[in-house]
TrEMBL record:
It comes from Rotaria socialis. Residues 1-233 form the FH2 domain. Signal peptide: none annotated. PANTHER family: FORMIN-J. This is FH2 domain-containing protein. It holds the Pfam family FH2. It comes from the Eukaryota.
């Protein structure tokens, strides 16, 4: 498919040769091999559309599946954070410790400042706020340590590297190609050009995938606000 697509693009760059091949009638005898190939190719109904469709069908499902997984992981991660029973208690305790040591009265901690807060030095030598927090959790709040039983929560560091905005830039690029295919398909149908039914079926199935992904984008935007409120951003 890649080879045929590449050859077709080269063919488009030579309009004189393309016009000659399109005008050729009858036997391909006497033509060079590449010309024979293109004469047969252009006789396939809607051949350019079919090449574009086949290329899209080859690339889009795998890419959409990969991006859908990333989006689902992000949605699940947000739910894990917002619904976790131990995390609010740990953050509240950390905030109290920070205010106690620094003399401040902040109501909550920014998410991007957590590591800095945990590294805050205490009056005790070689002891940070993280050391004090761990000691308190172990001695007085052992139930909060159940947070480490949540395997998904432990994976949040890796999942935090996933950025949904670049993902949706790629999704929209695919969606643009998808819309162009749909537009061309309708034009060909209006011209009464018969096309394989599976093309229409595949495009309908992909529509549901794009619809779900754009619905998920709205969820992510809402969750982004929810997380901002959660971490006092």
């Amino acid at each position: 498919l890649d080879a045929v697509t590449a050859l077709n693009k080269q063919f488009d760059k030579r309009p004189e040769d393309k016009a000659r091949v399109l005008a050729h009638k009858g036997s391909t005898h006497g033509l060079v091999l590449i010309e024979q190939f293109f004469v047969k190719l252009v006789r396939v109904p809607a051949y350019e559309f079919k090449l574009i469709y086949l290329k899209f069908r080859e690339e889009a499902p795998t890419q959409l599946e990969r991006m859908s997984k990333h989006i689902n992981d992000l949605l699940e991660s947000v739910q894990v954070i917002l619904n976790n029973e131990q995390l609010p208690g740990i953050l509240h305790l950390l905030c109290l410790l920070y205010n106690s040591i620094t003399g401040k009265t902040i109501p909550g901690l920014h998410f991007d400042s957590l590591l800095s807060v945990l590294s805050t030095r205490t009056p005790k030598q070689n002891t940070t706020l993280a050391h004090v927090l761990c000691h308190l959790l172990e001695e007085q709040y052992p139930t909060l340590l159940n947070i480490f039983d949540n395997q998904i929560l432990l994976k949040l560091k890796d999942l935090s590297a996933i950025k949904y905005i670049p993902i949706y830039i790629d999704i929209r690029l695919l969606f643009t190609r998808y819309k162009q295919l749909n537009t061309t398909l309708r034009e060909l149908q209006q011209q009464l050009i018969i096309l394989p039914e599976h093309i229409k079926v595949t495009l309908i199935e992909l529509q549901s995938v794009f619809t779900r992904l754009f619905d998920d984008e709205n969820k992510l935007k809402k969750y982004e606000k929810d997380l901002s409120n959660y971490f006092c951003l």
